[in-house]
Write a structure and sequence with these properties.
The complex is a heterotrimer of chains A (236), B (260) and C (234).
Chain A (H helix, E strand, L loop, with lengths): L1 H6 L3 H23 L1 H20 L4 H33 L2 H7 L4 H31 L6 H26 L5 H12 L1 H15 L6 H27 L3
Helix pairs in contact in A: 2-6, 3-4, 3-6, 4-6, 4-7, 4-8, 4-9, 6-7, 6-10, 7-8, 7-9, 7-10, 9-10
Chain B lengths: L11 H24 L3 E4 L5 E5 L5 H28 L2 H33 L8 H21 L4 H29 L17 H57 L4
Antiparallel strand pairs in B: 1-2
Helix pairs in contact in B: 1-6, 2-3, 2-5, 2-6, 3-4, 3-6, 4-5
Chain C lengths: L2 E12 L2 E12 L3 E5 L6 H8 L7 E6 L2 E2 L4 H5 L2 E4 L11 H11 L4 H10 L16 H13 L5 E5 L7 H16 L3 E5 L3 H5 L4 E6 L2 E4 L12 H7 L3
Parallel strand pairs in C: 3-8, 3-9, 6-7, 7-8
Antiparallel strand pairs in C: 1-2, 1-4, 4-5, 9-10
């Protein structure tokens, strides 16, 4: 009877409930293990510092390029977060149990993507503070900054979850993930950088139009990932 | 179930196509270097301007680009066909055309870059939509081939590949649009195709190069497809052999223990 | 009665290695089946196939009435597989792990408490992170997170391996409980004498094939059930 209850029309509710369950589990593990705070955030801050060294402490250049540097850093750190999200499931065979649980793959996709997106948002907040402090940037449009940050995080998380699942379980996943994912999230880099340039007031980009691109990207990969995730998980 | 297959990727068709390609290419070289005049114009001030000999790169660059896009387009179509019919045939077709697409994609980027140096005074122009789109597309399909190279069951590999090919296709559109918007305020808005009037000799040679390119494409595709097919056959033979061994292993143990 | 497992010439490939090379096997509902055979014989793959985690390269198979070729997802939610790995998250406590898997299977909170109680994981143990448990405790927690699912088919892969006396007794208790609840149990183990009391049907797995109804001294009660089944046309 449990089985039939799963299949009846309330499937949408079940998908949301299960996605929430998965996301909650992933986030709880991250809060406990603190890999994000102890390793990924310091890594990201280090990258920012390296950029400052590379640009020869030229304050003006740093201010101009801060949006681009910010998003390159987020993308690099996102690779770690995505890899980590799948490593947790692989560690002791939980990925098999997720398959055996009968949870709809759409819910697994949604849950994992949501958890990664939330972690990325936290990372973005910390990095934004870092950029403001280290690169001497001032924020002109807070609304745009927040919206672009959210949309880009969702976009990277959805595309990343899709590719993370595709490479998870493969011996070469650490090297394959960046190679597959980075060309795909290139538009996010362009769009989010433009939006931040506008928000920081360093260039007169049409930030809100770029926000549209980011939202579209997130929507496309959200739908695409949800639809194809089942086929990717099927791999025995 | 092990079928005996010829250990060659050539057939009558590929031999004909191969000779046609060779002959066509020889003619193309002759046309491009001897017949087509160098690109020069005399301005009102009496200065001689133009691309001079560099224009001849067009006969490699433009057909390469078309072949690359044909290859990627065919990969997308074959992937969609695989989704519909789920046969290895379409999977192998997707693989073969992706590989050819990458080869010509790289050739396109290389010749474009070499051509860009004398004409635009730069090896690379980030503002150019076609350039950047082609680059990202080649990168996506290099990733596609990398995934295909990972040993896996045929069906699993095919499923992964379809996802990457479809994402790649969507991605190309997004990249194309975003690069277009990204640089739409720069000077470099003009498309790279020559906007001004083209000479008859040049036009003919360009069309001829397309034709040679298409024959070359067909020739490579047939070979590459047959190679994939033979690889599949070998894989199947190996599995059959392993299966025999495994069953023999079971049989041996039958003897060692008492029979029921 | 509907057979719990029915395999016909089932071949499963791991990469290009045929782990199962044409298995014919029938297991009736409520049966306790012991898989016996040397390492590398294909016992683990056979259990994973029955769980719907491996695919059939050729042949046919049905588990709990679902076709293994195209209804594996239906199979998966009705079986429990206890493998070499625990399927638990090290950073979550025992109670959190069990609760997570219970909710994933749509079970309620009372099921969680019951399972934790049954596997004597109550008290401080329940609030300990799995990463800090001993191997035996981890295995018990793993079993508890399977018990909550109320599976109809138990697939146990070396359930006694590396466990202390108390945990072994727990495993035996689990098998007995499952049998009492009329679930089907298929287990691969080297601890034959422990299972003997349950009078299982012994099936030998050798070289990726099944030789059923062994008459070896280990299992005097071995019924030749599946040889009979082999002759039936599915």
């Amino acid at each position: 009877m449990r089985q039939t209850a799963r299949m009846v029309p309330l499937r949408v509710t079940a998908v949301f409930r299960d996605a929430w369950l998965i996301a909650g589990k992933d986030l709880k593990i991250e809060m406990r293990a603190r890999v994000g705070i102890n390793q990924i955030v310091p890594f990201a801050v280090t990258v920012l510092v390296l950029f400052a060294f590379a640009l020869d402490t030229d304050q003006e250049a740093l201010r101009t390029y801060a949006p681009g540097l910010f998003w390159v850093t987020v993308l690099l750190a996102s690779l770690l977060a995505i890899g980590r999200s799948f490593a947790v499931d692989l560690a002791d065979g939980a990925s098999d149990r997720l398959l055996l649980s009968g949870i709809d793959p759409i819910a697994v996709f949604g849950g994992k993507a949501a958890a990664i997106a939330i972690q990325l948002v936290v990372l973005e907040v910390l990095l934004a503070a870092g950029v403001v402090l280290l690169f001497d940037v001032t924020v002109h449009r807070y609304g745009l900054l927040v919206c672009a940050g959210l949309a880009a995080a969702v976009g990277v998380a959805t595309a990343g979850t899709l590719y993370g699942a595709l490479v998870s379980g493969l011996g070469v996943r650490e090297t394959l993930l960046p190679m597959l994912l980075l060309p795909v999230v290139a538009p996010v880099l362009i769009g989010a950088t433009r939006a931040f340039q506008d928000a920081f007031g360093v260039a007169g980009a049409e930030g809100w139009a770029w926000l549209g691109l980011l939202a579209g990207f997130a929507a496309i990969y959200g739908v695409f990932g949800a639809l194809s995730y089942g086929a990717l998980l099927e791999e025995a | 179930m092990s079928t005996v297959v010829a250990a060659t990727t050539s057939s009558k068709a590929t031999k004909v196509l191969g000779w046609l390609t060779l002959a066509g290419f020889s003619v193309l070289v002759a046309l491009a270097f001897a017949w087509v005049p160098e690109d020069t114009r005399i301005t009102e001030q009496g200065d001689v301007v133009g691309q001079f000999d560099a224009v001849r790169l067009m006969f490699v660059h433009v057909p390469s680009a078309i072949l690359a896009y044909t290859g990627f387009g065919l990969t997308l179509l074959a992937s969609l066909a695989y989704l519909r019919w789920r046969t290895d045939w379409w999977d192998m077709m997707a693989h073969a055309s992706a590989e050819i697409g990458v080869v010509f994609g790289v050739l396109t980027l290389a010749t474009g870059s070499i051509w860009g140096r004398p004409t635009w005074q730069t090896w690379w122009e980030w503002g150019d939509v076609r350039l950047v789109t082609t680059l990202v597309m080649v990168l996506v399909f290099v990733g596609y081939l990398a995934v295909r190279r990972i040993p896996a069951e045929t069906a699993v590999r095919a499923r992964r590949s379809v996802v990457i090919a479809l994402v790649g296709a969507v991605n190309i559109v997004i990249v194309n649009r975003s690069v277009d918007w990204w640089e739409n305020r720069t000077l470099h808005q003009q498309s790279t195709l020559i906007a001004r009037k083209i000479r008859d000799e040049t036009l003919f040679t360009l069309s001829f190069s397309f034709a040679v390119g298409m024959v070359l494409f067909a020739w490579l595709l047939l070979h590459r497809f047959r190679l994939a097919y033979l690889e599949g056959q070998i894989e199947q033979l190996e599995v059959d052999e392993a299966l025999e061994e495994r069953r023999a292993e079971a049989g041996l143990s039958d003897d060692s223990e008492e029979q029921p | 009665m509907e057979p719990a497992v029915r395999l016909r010439a089932a071949v499963t490939l791991l990469g290009r290695f045929p782990a199962l090379a044409g298995v014919d096997l029938d297991i009736t509902s409520g049966e306790i089946v012991l898989l016996k055979g040397p390492n590398g014989a294909g016992k683990t793959t056979l259990l994973r196939l029955c769980a719907g985690l491996c695919s059939l390269a050729s042949g046919q198979g049905w588990v709990l009435g679902h076709d293994l070729n195209d209804e594996r997802r239906m199979v998966r939610r009705r079986v429990a597989l206890l493998g070499h790995r625990t399927g638990l998250y090290d950073d979550l406590t025992v109670a959190e792990n069990v609760a997570f898997w219970a909710r994933a299977a749509g079970a309620g909170g009372t099921d969680v408490d019951e399972a934790i109680e049954r596997l004597s994981l109550t008290g401080r143990l329940a609030d300990t992170r799995v990463g800090r448990l001993s191997a035996g405790q981890r295995r018990r927690a793993s079993i508890a997170s399977l018990v909550v699912r109320r599976p109809e088919l138990w697939l146990l892969d070396e359930p006694h391996a590396g466990l202390d006396q108390q945990s072994r007794d727990t495993v035996d208790m689990l098998v007995r409980g499952a049998a009492a609840a009329e679930a089907t149990v298929v287990l691969a183990t080297h601890e034959l004498e422990r299972i003997q009391v349950l009078k299982p049907r012994v099936v030998s797995v050798v070289g990726g094939m099944v030789r059923s109804g062994s008459h070896s001294a280990d299992a005097p009660n071995g019924e030749d059930g599946s040889t009979e089944g082999d002759r039936r046309v599915p």
